[in-house]
């Protein structure tokens, strides 16, 4: 369905409503939140018509609670953008906050060769509430998706999350609060823009594909779900690690370690990891800390992980490392290719440092 008309040459923006709090209303009998028709959401924000953009919308039917998001929905969302890519100048994806960082990270990899804005947003309160944050989030996300440089190029040609005045690179973002309006943060990479009276873009941080490297959009059609996140904790039982690593269909592990990539050096632990790696399982080391990077050359524990073949995840978030590994495994690459690409930035998801080493 389409809402609004525009003069010739004005930006064309596609809103994709997957679900989430922003489009919900409160059931008067139970007080529970339930999804409402997307037309209701647009009716609550007549200000969108004042932009003069051509704004069209697509709604997932039924709307998806973000806690029910699956890899199939990620692929469906990527295919939806691919289908409409040549028609629109920018895309705004409305999504529940709980798994927004996962979905947005996944899209940053699935949409290879992207040179148009894909801006994720949502809200902590439904759009119909008096104090909702959804109205400002949506209005500003639409404006960012339509923004152009003086040369006429998209201002932010990458997948981002806009929330509570901050525009963040999607694959650098985590959800940091369940009840504050400032629900997302990017601890290892600066904001791409901040919205106050004006939207101030930090152009030096925006990822742009060079003119020589520009290619047509390519959308991957497969991801490998056979990946787990293993978060270490003091006293983790051997049986737990052994059971997880023995899953027959397992292809990859995101290992959440301490500090700058440290873990227990108990012989049984290192032996189990080494055996899994020999079976072809990719193990990627990311830190449990909110900020900072994995440096497996700094302490003996990290060095020993590197010696058995654990791959450094550098400063990637867990959400990013997980979706990137699913993406690479889905491409059918060999072990060495995946190991190398996990340590190289594809779309600005990690920072190379002097201590970043490539798996050999």
UniProtKB/TrEMBL annotation:
InterPro entries: AsnA_fam (IPR006033), Asp/glu_Ase-like_sf (IPR036152), Asparaginase/glutaminase-like (IPR006034), Asparaginase/glutaminase_AS1 (IPR020827), Asparaginase/glutaminase_AS2 (IPR027475), Asparaginase_C (IPR040919), L-asparaginase_C (IPR027473), L-asparaginase_I (IPR041725). It is an enzyme of class 3 (hydrolase). It comes from Porphyromonas circumdentaria. The active site is at residues 21, 97. Gene3D superfamilies: 3.40.50.40, L-asparaginase, N-terminal domain. GO terms for molecular function: asparaginase activity. This is asparaginase. GO terms for biological process: aspartate family amino acid metabolic process. Residues 226-342 form the Asparaginase/glutaminase C-terminal domain. It comes from the Bacteria. Belongs to the asparaginase 1 family. Its EC number is 3.5.1.1. Residues 12-203 form the L-asparaginase N-terminal domain. Keywords: Hydrolase. Substrate binds at residues 66, 97-98.
């Amino acid at each position: 369905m389409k809402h609004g008309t525009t003069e010739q040459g004005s930006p064309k923006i596609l809103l994709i409503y997957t679900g989430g709090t922003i489009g919900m209303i409160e059931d008067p009998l139970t007080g529970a939140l339930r999804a409402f028709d997307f037309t209701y959401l647009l009716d609550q924000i007549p200000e969108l018509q004042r932009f003069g953009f051509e704004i069209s919308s697509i709604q997932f039917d039924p709307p998806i609670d973000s806690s029910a998001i699956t890899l199939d929905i990620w692929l469906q969302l990527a295919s939806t953008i691919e289908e409409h890519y040549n028609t629109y100048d920018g895309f705004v994806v409305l999504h529940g906050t709980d798994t927004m960082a996962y979905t947005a990270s996944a899209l940053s990899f699935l949409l290879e060769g992207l040179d148009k804005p894909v801006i994720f947003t949502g809200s902590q309160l439904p759009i119909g509430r008096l104090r909702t944050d959804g109205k400002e989030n949506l209005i500003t996300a639409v404006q960012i998706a339509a923004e152009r440089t003086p040369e006429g190029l998209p201002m932010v040609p990458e997948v981002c999350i806009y929330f509570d005045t901050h525009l963040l690179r999607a694959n650098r973002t985590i959800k940091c609060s369940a009840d504050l309006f400032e629900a997302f943060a990017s601890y290892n990479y600066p904001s791409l823009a901040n919205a106050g009276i004006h939207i101030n873009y930090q152009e030096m941080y925006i990822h742009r594909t060079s003119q020589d490297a520009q290619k047509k959009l390519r959308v991957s059609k497969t991801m490998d779900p056979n990946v787990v996140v293993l978060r270490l904790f003091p006293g983790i039982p051997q049986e737990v690690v052994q059971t997880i690593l023995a899953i027959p269909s397992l292809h990859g592990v995101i290992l959440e370690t301490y500090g700058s990539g440290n873990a227990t050096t108990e012989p049984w632990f290192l032996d189990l990891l080494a055996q899994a790696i020999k079976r072809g399982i990719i193990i990627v080391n990311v830190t449990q800390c909110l900020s900072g990077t994995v440096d497996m050359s700094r302490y003996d524990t990290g060095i020993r992980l590197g010696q058995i073949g654990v791959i450094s995840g550098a400063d990637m978030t867990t959400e990013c490392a997980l979706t990137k590994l699913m993406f690479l495994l889905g491409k059918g690459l060999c072990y060495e290719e995946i190991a190398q690409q996990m340590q190289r930035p594809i779309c600005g998801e990690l920072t190379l440092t002097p201590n970043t080493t490539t798996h050999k």
